[in-house]
Every structure is written in C-alpha cells, then in structure tokens.
Amino acid sequence: MTELVRVLRGLRRLTDDPRDAFAHRLRIGLAVAALILILSLLR
User: Fold this and answer.
1) Which residue ranges traverse the bilayer (predicted)?
2) Rounded distance, CA 12 to CA 36, Å?
3) How far apart are alpha carbons 33 and 25 in whole angstroms?
4) How far does the chain reach from its first CA to its final CA, in angstroms?
5) C-alpha to C-alpha distance for 11 and 32, rounded to whole angstroms
6) Which of 5, 24, 6 is nearest to 14 (CA)?
7) Of 13, 16, 32, 33, whose CA–CA distance to 24 is shortest?
8) Tens digit of pLDDT for each residue in 1-43?
9) What is the rounded CA–CA span in Å between residue 6 and residue 18?
10) What distance in Å separates the CA atoms of residue 31 and residue 33, rounded to the nearest whole number?
C-alpha cells in the first residue's frame, strides 16, 4: 500500500498555472481510463 501512495504522490503536480494543472489531470485521467479499458478487455 505504501508503494501505491508513493506512486500517487509522484503523479501529483504542484503548479500555480490552472491550464497546466488541467492538462496534467486530463492526461492522468486518460491514462487511467485506458488502463481500465485494457484490463476489462483482458478478462
């Protein structure tokens, strides 16, 4: 569980630019959606 927390902290982005923060969240969201799709297709 601690490894998961470490990975999630690494994905966190501290920035003051709202456009950069939104783009980062969008990329992370798309990566998670792709991972879920791949895992659901493998089952």
Assistant:
1) 22-42
2) 20
3) 12
4) 24
5) 12
6) 24
7) 13
8) 788 888 777 777 677 788 988 888 899 899 999 999 999 999 8
9) 24
10) 5
**Identity of residue 27:** R
Q: What is the pTM of this model?
A: 0.64
Torsion angle of the four alpha carbons 25, 30, 35, 39, in this order, in degrees rounded to the nearest 10 = 130
CA distance 8 to 1: 11
One-character DSSP codes across 4-36: HHHHHHHH----S-HHHHHHHHHHHHHHHHHHH
Residue bearing tokens 């791949």: 38
